Amino acid sequence: MDMGHCKALIVLGLVLGGAAATLTSNSAREKENAAFPVVVNTWADNGFQSAGAKAWEVLSKERGSSLDAVERGCSVCEELQCDGTVGYGGSPDETGETTLDAMIMDGVTMNIGAVSDLRNIRNAISVARKVLDHTAHTMLAGNQATKFAKQMGFKAQSLSTNNSLGIWQKWKQNKCQPNFWRNVSPNPTGSCGPYKANHKISTADLIQSSNEISSQNHDTVGMVAIDAEGVIAAGTSTNGARHKIAGRVGDSPIPGAGAYADQDVGGAAATGDGDVMMRFLPSFLAVEEMRRGQTPKQAGETAIRRIVAKYPSFQGAMVVLHKSGQHAAVCHGLPGGTFPYTLASPTTGKATVFSVKCL
Fold first, then answer.
1. Annotated binding-site residue? 86
2. In principle, which of 24, 72, 112, 242 could form an S-S bond with 91, CB 3.0–4.6 Å?
């Protein structure tokens, strides 16, 4: 064989070898992306499944971004007033007013947009998205968040309805029971106040979970999504705890508590007793445990058990999503001992309800 022929064969081999390597690389990438897009959210009935369905439509049919999917999915729950615990017309505070909390997080940039104690604006998750897209801030609160929303073109309107005001009136007639006051006079277990602080502080009742979670009080829609490009986002929306003290902000808009997303690892979202959960940052902890090598199930259990160790009567749940598309849900203390949640992926082909037993 002459040298020219030999060189030609070598070049051909290199070309074919490179092509084979490219095909192998593309094949691996296609296999990896077969798990995407995917979206998982807390709860299933009374509109929560519809939220997952809308997010899936954005991801699968419109080929939209994970941020768009989270925003539009949570928006559905706000419009449907999921369980009366998301959106307008639910969970009146002790003055009878409904206020909203929401957040949305970009797992690539780690940027966050959030609103808390939002008044007179119904589109909380979309206002949070405006905070993300159009400010250098993370959270806006109260009346100033409302002012910002109006600047961004949102319509101001009452968040109260006949139903929410009826709930409040019934609560007042029942001597404002239950409520969130502690260590005050007159005794908050049989009075509507006004209250004054007791000089002697008792901590005996402070280890109890304070927000009863039931089939009519799910508390929050929390959602984590990965789009077709593998980009992760997470978000939440809620009208908070029913009969809360005016001005109270729960876990939902707090990064790492209500939800968290990190492109290098995955994301998580929580629901339940927000006053307790925000003390432990369970969504952040679950993501960090996955970073350390735990599976989504193990990571969620670690986060929940961390809370239960201090608050044995804690009621709550989490959904956890790894960057690979693997997911899990965990819960503790929920009525019936199970937690229904919604998942949509290439495997399910639509928003599908699953359920797990609580720890």
1. no
2. 242
